[in-house]
């Protein structure tokens, strides 16, 4: 764990790197495929988000809370968070000021990289390449301590993105080192489990793509299972193993999250948004939206619009 002055200096170095590479408040993308740098100058309200790939989340400055798979995590620059793919989660920035903004980045990790690095480690550690079978009690997100070796690997990776030649030659190597340092830690089997569960995910990935493309239409278990040539029972079982949710729950959350995005765009009324995300009844849509976000769709859109107008006048 980062605790002494020298290690704090390393953490400050990462904060400086992220500060110079972020060009505005909120999410900054484009530095590396699958990487998003976050900068906030004030705390935020809880909001729902989604990641599509196994991801490592590292805070350089400030503090953040995440709720995923029914578990609540609070982490800062002394810890890092690993989240599985296709995950809906709730996040909130807890500590951020204009003088000391919240700075963090999320890096998507190809599960194949995790398995490749772990295979190279087998000879030294004697750890089996295949992850243990999942159980009902195994959550698929985890917070671990961030020590100076891992932080140094993160810095090397970040700094290799500056020059084109370093980016091509060194960045992929430093990315593997970053994964290697994580796999060395006491949660080795956990990260490998999360990565290993992506192996059988092609059919589920296809189902997820179908869901996102057909939110306005019917999305029953039978329809989804038919799309990927599985029985309804096999599809439901595999879907829950890989996403941690039932197909019904996942579809509902995806519809409501898409509705939230459409409301923020302020191009459609509540009734049109309801239809666009597959709700035949606007009252049913309003009831489920309130249950998830704590407010009605109209109140949510009005509040977000007012917040944007206030920020624009500062």
TrEMBL record:
InterPro entries documented for this protein: Homeodomain-like_sf, HTH_AraC, HTH_AraC-typ_CS, Tscrpt_reg_AraC-type_HTH, Tscrpt_reg_HTH_AraC_N
Keyword Nucleotide-binding in record: no
Domain of life assignment: Bacteria
Domain HTH araC/xylS-type: 205-303
Keyword entries, A-Z: DNA-binding, Transcription, Transcription regulation
Family matches, as Gene3D superfamilies: Homeodomain-like (1.10.10.60)
SUPFAM superfamilies: Homeodomain-like (SSF46689)
Keyword Transcription regulation listed: yes
Molecular function GO terms recorded: DNA-binding transcription factor activity; sequence-specific DNA binding
Protein name: AraC family transcriptional regulator
């Amino acid at each position: 764990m980062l605790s002494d002055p020298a290690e704090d200096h390393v953490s400050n170095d990462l904060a400086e790197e992220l500060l110079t590479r972020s060009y505005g408040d909120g999410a900054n993308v484009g530095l590396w495929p699958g990487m998003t740098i976050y900068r906030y100058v004030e705390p935020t309200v809880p909001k729902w988000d989604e990641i599509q790939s196994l991801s490592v989340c590292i805070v350089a400055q400030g503090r953040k809370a995440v709720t995923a798979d029914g578990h609540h995590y609070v982490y800062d620059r002394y810890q890092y968070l690993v989240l599985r793919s296709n995950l809906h989660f709730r996040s909130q920035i807890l500590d951020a000021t204009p003088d000391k903004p919240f700075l963090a980045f999320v890096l998507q990790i190809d599960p194949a990289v995790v398995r490749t690095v772990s295979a190279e480690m087998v000879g030294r550690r004697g750890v089996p390449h295949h992850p243990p079978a999942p159980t009902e009690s195994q959550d698929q997100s985890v917070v671990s301590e961030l020590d100076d070796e891992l932080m140094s690997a993160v810095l090397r990776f970040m700094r290799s993105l500056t020059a084109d030649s370093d980016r091509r030659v060194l960045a992929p190597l430093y990315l593997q080192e970053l994964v290697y340092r994580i796999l060395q830690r006491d949660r080795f089997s956990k990260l490998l489990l999360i990565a290993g569960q992506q192996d059988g995910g092609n059919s589920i990935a296809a189902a997820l793509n179908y869901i996102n493309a057909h939110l306005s239409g019917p999305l029953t278990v039978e329809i989804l299972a038919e799309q990927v040539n599985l029985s309804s029972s096999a599809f439901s079982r595999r879907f829950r193993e890989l996403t941690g949710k039932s197909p019904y729950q996942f579809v509902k959350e995806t519809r409501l999250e898409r509705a939230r995005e459409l409301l923020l765009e302020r191009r459609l009324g509540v009734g049109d948004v309801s239809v666009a995300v597959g709700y035949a009844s606007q009252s049913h849509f309003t009831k489920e939206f309130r249950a998830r976000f704590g407010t009605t769709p109209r109140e949510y859109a009005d509040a977000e619009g007012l917040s944007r107008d206030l920020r624009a006048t500062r």
